[in-house]
Write a sequence for this structure.
């Protein structure tokens, strides 16, 4: 698996995958329609792509998911705004591979941060299994952080 900045001609496919992926949250404690903002919006995803935050996850030539990433100006802290794998590829280890790709994509990052709803048993267990630790609970969300052990020197 590898990640690249999302291509304009892939946005509609990415949105379709987002809808399929987030609609499965009802299977793990979510209520129907309780999805993240913009998950089903082509315009929102286009904006994320224009701003350089939307990445597509590829296996060979196949688009399997996406991530929305917000590195700080220094590249030493990355906020993972969202990841998703198309539901047809769930339970195949692709989510783990996507997170590994994200972390490798930012070799100078000292920390990775993200949040996920407290009710979502699947995502909370997933992030904890990957070494993320809860640093705060607020407004129904668990805020996670993972400190990188493999930070490469200074990137300046």
């Amino acid at each position: 698996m590898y990640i690249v900045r999302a291509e304009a001609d892939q946005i509609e496919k990415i949105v379709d995958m987002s809808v399929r992926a987030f609609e499965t949250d009802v299977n793990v404690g979510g209520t129907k329609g309780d999805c993240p903002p913009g998950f089903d919006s082509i315009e929102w995803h286009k904006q994320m792509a224009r701003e350089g935050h939307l990445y597509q996850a590829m296996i060979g030539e196949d688009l399997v998911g996406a991530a929305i990433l917000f590195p700080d100006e220094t590249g030493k802290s990355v906020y993972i705004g969202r990841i998703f794998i198309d539901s047809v590829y769930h339970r195949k280890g692709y989510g783990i591979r996507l997170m590994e790709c994200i972390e490798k994509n930012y070799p100078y990052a000292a920390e990775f941060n993200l949040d996920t709803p407290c009710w979502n048993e699947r995502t909370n267990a997933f992030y904890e299994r990957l070494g993320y630790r809860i640093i705060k609970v607020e407004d129904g969300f668990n805020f996670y952080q993972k400190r990188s052990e493999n930070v490469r020197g200074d990137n300046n």
